[in-house]
Amino acid sequence: MQAEKKSRVLMVLSYFHPFRGGAENQALLLSENLRQKGLDVSVLTRSFENLPAFETIRTVPVYRCIKTVNARTLFGMYYFCSCIFFMILKRKQYDILHCHILQGFHSVAAVMVGRLCKKKVVIKIASSGVANDFIHLKQVLGGKYILRFLKKADRLVATSRQSVIEAHREDFSDRQITMIPNGVDTGRFKPSVEYVHSRTRIVCVGRLVKGKGTDVLIKAFTQVKHEGLCSRLDIVGGGPEQSALSKTAAELGCVEDIRFHGEVGNVENFFDNTCVFVQPSLAEGMSNVILEAMACGLPVVATRTGAAIDIIQDGVNGLLVDADSAGQIRDAVQKIMSDEAFARLLGSNARKTIEDTCSIKGVTRQYQELYRELITLKPA
User: Fold this and answer.
1) Residues sharing a CB contact under 8 Å with residue 188, sequence separation 6 or more, in sequence order
2) Pairing state of beta strands 284-285 and 127-128?
3) What confidence tier does 4 reach under pLDDT thresholds 50, 70, 90?
4) Structure confidence by residue, pLDDT tens digits, 97-131
5) Cystine design at 114: which of 14, 74, 119, 377 (Cβ 3.0–4.6 Å)?
6) Residue ranges of the domains in the chain?
7) Does this chain's domain 8-183+360-376 share its CATH topology with 201-357?
8) CATH superfamily, domain at 8-183+360-376
9) Domain 201-357 is in which class?
10) CA distance 47 to 14
11) pTM value surpassing 0.85
12) Which residues touch 179 (CB under 8 Å, ≥6 apart)?
């Protein structure tokens, strides 16, 4: 009996490790786990002067061969052409092009090379809601025509029901859309064994950019702190809004109680039984840090954006609040911090949810099945 052919996959995205964004972390985690299953997976990403053109990261071969220039009119041309060149040059080394983030120039290049070289193309939708990938794409010059061309992709991967709805609005067919959640390393992210009698702090992890709602969280924290339930807010992550957020904290009289930790390598060090995790984003895809906090058994408060409404059952394994509502965040945090038994129940149910639906092992199997299906499909 002939052995099943293993998929050969080229992951393509603009930034990759050591950059630590949601897409970057997911691409590395998924690539590593796919390789453990015997798949031939490599990564194509942008080149940077201080990083090698090729290296192996956690068993994953990484090619930094997407060229760019610091000129607005030429940036996209260099990016697009270098993608095309690499994809054609290495065409015998992969069967599937898997692009992360729909609106990148690499997605257009992948569809073009896929048609030319008879390769399958998978594109993952990164964000949904008011700042979804489709909106971003249509805002660029010629975006509507690019989107029409991207409909030739073999498959879109959506991480939430909201993303599926948005893809349908853009006339992507049911056949083209597959829903697969982000994955979590449940061995790395796991509940703390230390027992505490109450919660004393809030933790938030994310880029400090507009749209993440960190300013709303600071306002909510100020209200909770004044009521004596919470003593500290830990904000993990860096970004251009840090200065403005520090100013907001100073104006509200709580700057000494808020700690900005910047970028860190091990966010799980902040996830223990003394905290409540809050994700205040105004728009989101499937937030990795929500999943990681839930895997650590934390009670989570999240806005009704992106995949949060798919993964969180309000009052069962977390609490959901409206975006841009400091009052609702305050009330949710108060409810958790004033009832430790309730906090533990939310955390326990959250852990079980992640084990059942979002473990990286299960997500890896779903991608294996997707790749297998695509390779066996006859050309249209």
Assistant:
1) 268
2) antiparallel
3) low
4) 999 988 888 999 999 999 999 999 999 998 877 77
5) 119
6) 8-183+360-376, 201-357
7) yes
8) Glycogen Phosphorylase B; (3.40.50.2000)
9) alpha beta
10) 9
11) yes
12) 157, 158, 159, 160, 161, 163, 164
